[in-house]
Structure formats: C-alpha cells, structure tokens
C-alpha cells in the first residue's frame, strides 16, 4: 500500500518537473528592482539623452549615456569571465534624412552578445532605447530625463544581462541599447541591416519600450497587466504566400504572432500572477517602436510594454500646466513593475536560448479526410516535437500533443477544417521552439 502511494507521488513529481524548470524560477528571483532603480536614476541624470545631444561631456548627453551603458555591460562581462562581446554599432545619418534630423549625427547602438554553445549564429534579442525627447522632437538641449521612455527598457536590458550571464545557453543572446528611436527608428534599422549583412539567424526581438508605468491615463492602476504587441503577418511576405493564406488560413499566424504566443504561454506558466495582454497589432495606434525595423527586414519581433500609459508623462517638456505636472520624471516609475517585466523578458530569452531551432518545413494534409496529418523537417538537437492546435477563433494554442522523435504524425479524428495547427521542436530539457504554422501542404 505504502509503496504504491510512494510510486504514485514519484510519478507526479517527475511529470511536474518535466513541465517546469527550476532555473526559470531562479531567473525570476534574481532580477533586482533595486539595481533597475539605480540604473534608471543614472540614465535620467544624464540630463538629456536626445540622439542629437552632446557627445563630448562626461556627465550630460547621449555620448556620456552610451559610454556608461557600454561600461555596465563590460562590468557584467568581467563577472562572467568575458562571456559578453560588447561593442558599438553605428551609422551616420545625414541632416535632413527626415525633419527630426536637424544636423548630421552618428546613431550609435550598444550591443552585448552572449554566444551560444551549440547554435552561435542563432540570436534572440532584448532591446531597450538609449535616447529620449521632450515636446519638440528636435529640441536636443533641454532636460529630457526619459525615465520611463525609455530608461526603463534600457535598465531592464542591463539587468537581464546581469542575470542571464550566469548561465550557458545553446543559442546566442543579444542585449541591446538602441539610439535614434524618437528621431525615426534609426538605431533599430541600423542593427537590422547589420544582422542581415552578418548573416545572423534571428529567432526574434523583444523590444522593451516603457516598462515602468502602472498608473494609466484611463484611471486604471495595475502592476500585473502588460501588453505584447505583434503584427499578424510579415510585411515582406510574397504574393504566393498571401494567396495561399486565402485558402489555407494564417491571417493571424505570422512569425511575430507566434513569438507573442510563446511569451504569453511562458508567462502564464511561470508567472501566473501576471496578466499578459496579446494585442493583435504591430504597435499602438499609429505609433512606432524599435521592433518595426526588424519586422521590416523579415525578422520576428514584438513590443513588450506597460498596459496603461500616461501621455502627460511622455515626450513632454517638464512643466506644470492647469495643475497637471508634465514630464517623464523618475517619480512616476514603478521599479518593482519594471523588474517584473524584465523577468518576463529574461525567462523567455532563456527558454528560447535553451530550445532547439524550430522545424523549417511544416506540411499539413488531410483534406476531405477524418484525420489531420503532418510532416516536418528534422531539427538537429530536438528530442521530439509537439503538435499544437486550437479553435480558429482562439488566440492561444489550447491543445497540444507531444509526439516524440518522429517527422510525421496523424491526429486521428481531428478534422483539418475545424482548427488551426502548428508544430514546435522540443529539446531534452523540455524547452521549446516557437510554433511553426504550416508552410506547405501534402495530399
Ligand atoms: Zn518615446
């Protein structure tokens, strides 16, 4: 009797341990709100970090800010035996490139790369922005603390590097500070082009832009809600892919949307106290962010940010008007919340960096048959594969089946017409690639 009970308990424990990984909880616990507060304070105290601001001063302007960011990454690297390759990536942007570039400027980004042990040329990226602005986007001299927009995202990125540099991953991770965001997404554009030139395989980018405000202009106060923005399908898809979608579906199943679902699911598993809101749109209505240039280049990318914005604290001259205090100042940033969203990033960077690549080809069959059939290309390093499906109206992959180390499978009794399907690759520790929506059919 006792033996049976013990066996039963053992089975439950083993099953549970296969579903979650203690290292992910350790990563959540290691993120420090105090260090994030220190970093946001430091960044806000550079006075202005406007892209066109002073680059010579040691205490004020974007030059001092980026040198400090680089030195912080280097400190992190020193603590892990040089595990980060830290460098500037820069492009000259000429006066008049748009109305916000009022003089020639070097747009300088800071990259810190933690090389993967097995797939060094595959990269998952977390970014924040270095630059800030006030009411007039060409005003590069007035105080522009940009505490939330976007010292919060930058500080989160520095902290994620500190936490994750204690581990070894199979894929590479890039921690990145981007410039030129407020002037027209120049920094992201520069790195996306650099990635293409280097032949980097980009798993995806998590663009963190404003992760510190919990009091919304809508009156809602929440330290658990946050948004994941993702576009439906890549802008550079071919006419053939567009036509295929009409007959096979996929309007809401592009690579960035799959990345959004990945983050959503992982947060629900490991941080159930949080409320991730998937927003089915590239970005906020008519506004931009630094994931877009990566999307333009055909890479998966999402924006992670607070759910309840306050517009009196964004892009504003610091002033009091009609009793309202305007300005993106330190007082409005909630550091515990910024730490939670940093943990959201860190656990997803880790999960993807520990996971095998996704299958490149996924074919689906089963037209006018009682069962759905799948074939996919084998993935080096995968211990097995998981087939996912969901009602066509559901935003999340609600059903799944682990099918082992095979490259084809039939879901008996599941009619192809009534669901959407996808396949992911699963590593030996249970970490998964993003889900791949079928990109081919067979009879
Ligand atoms: Zn902004």
UniProtKB/TrEMBL annotation:
GO terms for cellular component: extracellular region. Its main location: secreted. Residues 109-313 form the Peptidase M28 domain. One of its GO terms (biological process) is proteolysis. Residues 1-18 form the signal peptide. It is found in: Secreted. One of its GO terms (molecular function) is metalloexopeptidase activity. Keywords: Hydrolase, Metalloprotease, Protease, Secreted, Signal. This is Peptidase M28. It comes from Maribacter cobaltidurans.
